[in-house]
Amino acid sequence: MLEGTTAEIRERKALRINPAKTCQPIGAMYAALGINKCMPHSHGSQGCCAYHRSQLTRHHKDPVVATTSSFTEGASVFGGMANLKTALSNIFNIYEPDIVAVHTTCLSEVIGDDIPMIIKKSAEDGIIPEGKVVIHTNTPSFAGSHVTGFSNQCAAFVKYLAESSGETKNVLNIFPGWVEPADMREMKRLAEMVGVEYIMAPDTSDVLDSPHDGKYHMYPDGGTTVAQLKAMGDSFLTLALGPLASTAAATELEKKCKVPNKVLELPIGVKATDEFVNALRLAGDTAVPADLEKERGRLVDMISDMSQYLHNLKIAIFGDPDHLTSMVSFLVEMGAKPMIVITGTPGKKWEAKMKEICSETNPEAEILAFSDIHYMHQWIKNNPVDLIMGNTYGKYVARTEKLPYVRFGFPILDRVGHRAFPSVGYTGGMRILEKITDALFDQRDREDPDHEVELVL
Amino acid sequence: MSDAINKAPMGPHGPDAATAREEMLKIYPKKTQRKRGKQMLVNEDPATPAEIGANSRTVPGIITQRGCSYAGCKGVVIGPIYDILHITHGPIGCGWYSWLSRRNITKIRAEGETNYLQYSMSTDMQEDHIVFGGEKQLATAIQEAYDEFHPKAISVYATCPVGLIGDDIHTVCRTMKEKLGINIFGFSCEGYKGVSQSAGHHIANNGVFKHMIGLDDTPVEAKYKINILGEYNIGGDAWEIDRVLQLCGIHIIGTLSGGVSYGEICNCHMADLNVVMCHRSINYMAEMMEEKFGIPWFKVNFIGIEGTKKSLRKIAQYFGDKELIDRVEEVIAAEMAEVKPVLDDIRTRTFGKTAALFVGGSRAHHYQDLFEDMDMQVIAAGYEFAHRDDYEGRDVLPHIKIDADSRNIEELEVTADETRFDAAKPEKKKALEESGFTFSDYEGMMRQMAKDTLVIDDISHHEMEKLIEMYHPDVIGSGIKDKYVIEKMGVPCKQLHSYDYGGPYAGFKGAVNFFKDIDRMTSTKVWKLARAPWHTDGSEPAEKEATPASA
User: Considering only alpha carbons, which residue of chain A is nearest residue B485?
Assistant: First the structure.
């Protein structure tokens, strides 16, 4: 397993080894799937669309439909206008979505296709039926990462659709950031518990965790409707969760419809969830219900019960910036020691923020953006840790180093829980805590010498 | 197919194939209808298959199964070679998506080697590389990969933007090859080339032939030496084929390219014979090796009991030694003693059940053998990226018009090797042909399919939905993108790219695995749970509220 990985770290300027990120378009596709009756459309070679659909399907274990402009060499030379127009005609005739969300690929970016112009032409030529919408976002694969693509798609929802009627409504906008359908469901439950009327966009719950009823629904019940996206311009406030994923959309909405916003970290762990709940409370001018206080209390109780195992626990973690900010904060709350924190997404500011977060338990923590899993692995060989956390790809590192592993982030291709159980909110915190301690205890139960096996832990 | 089954060609449910075809095409705009119509046929006369519009452009906007040239080249053909260090030249996505996702399982041959398939390496191109060119980045990446891992060989794959900005990956590879003294070569497999993965297979074949085949003339000490071409070791298929052939006393030098090593590929021109599993992805290599070295080839199929037996017997007949012919019969008899009781039991449940297969460039054909073994009926089938010859047989090859998309893929000029062409082989081939033995043969999928079944090339999402609505097959073989669409409709889907992470399905032991899996899937009661008990009176599930709870 990973035989070629040695402890000797060499500086690399050009070679990425075992990336902790992927490209923009998959993020745009995921965000577009959170819109009701929306067809995500990949403007480029069909391989991009096939790869994104495959990987999202493996992660969600649910149908992921999307269309492609199926570029050939001719389209790459002469431009993709004819392909996109044909595609739109077929999509509206065959699949009848309310909205098509076009995102670009490195191919169409390099040839410089002018998507707004093509959409305009398609409308003029009667390809877009009355009442239907086509929007677009630029998602060049050679900038940012999959999270940037998600962010760009969210901003495009606002750019194209949000409207201000002049009358502010008592409704709160929530941009949930790139989280699981189960997390979006949990955020909505929290908002409902606190008693706030909201619009969440995008919302992949009931789309990518759709129930089995014996039928196939190309457009499941879930997802933010076009009408809701329009109405976001009349809300009194926006909560943007996850700065990298959601700030662009919130800023756009402020610019376009003068809806003020508050950017928060993803509500993972005690403090970040407190911030979210508190923001909901202030927005709704209401009180936090006793039941929610009890959920919080149960999480704090569980942390205190387990703190002997968590204190100074040395953790290596990789993933996406927003996920890491909140998860590492949570680890620090639990008393654990983040040793190395890696993301593939570029971001100097994020590095500084993480440094600050880690300093509470480990001022020496190694924090790197625009890095990779191979580097993390080599670093671990030099600086032993107790536990690794990250997406499915990290399991090879954990196996090589014989360390317990907790899956977290995107993608998770070999477990089923992430689709059903949230990581956000107080209950999500309990799940994360359970997974961490299970991983540690399972290893002890399996590998400790007989005389050290404990019944009670 | 067993004589006992004599049912309607499309199974017990639904209309005849022609009506179904009309129904599927109905919704399409005119131009799309015309195009898709050519890719959907009723198999009216299996003996003389009709012309199918295969290997043509995908209609934009259609939800297609197909991927790209890069996926076919890096993902399928070269990707499985474990001891080559693979570098994707491009933005991060392509290298990431093709990282371990195709189940290229392998075993390292010796202590100290590295299995590079567990790594994803890429130049992670950023905007400035797109603007100013990425050749320097690639050269540096190759140097860094060499310094870090010291591989035997490095292979470079171009992605879409690389071709557009005009990076000359081949010159970079040549320069670095001279500098580092190891074999380094590139593949111009940009995703926009061709109309599907198939273009990538061809590009890969050319590269393997140019840069690896024939590099090592070390003699191989074995009586019967063959290569298996077009076998990718999904789920361990190649290992099961190897096990059976070893029992027979037949030695495989190289399996292209499942579980194979770089050295085995370099040495595989020392074989007496090439046998071809996946005709689509590797027929180019079989042809080129014959032209250069004189090694004849014929088609085999180790998927399915009958197919495996037939293939083993044909290989034995090629060598013509009584000892080998007898040994093959002994192996078949011993293996069948284990297979038969399982199959006899399972057949009582699978008899007469229906299947549809939409996958790949050979599997939609090969797997029909396994369903026939189980007395199941294949009502519809089609490939994702095959050409006309894979449907209609190689006799149509002279009649296939080369279109602009195929013309862009290089055809190598191959001539007989001055010193290594073995003239005895073509002579032997000629003699055998005179006695009725067939070489360079593939009769295609349609000849094997029953009369009046449906043949659908690159089935679209809409057509798949319609097919299930009309026929509700007992099982469908397809891929990950379709799997959960199909299963939401209460039909089990066996992924025939990844085998749903099971397998092997090849050879005798593999067939037993497949029979058990299909038996489980077609007997499952899980779909019955879809309906809550309070709806068993026939009422529909309660309508969900039209609008979400809030706003």
Answer: A63
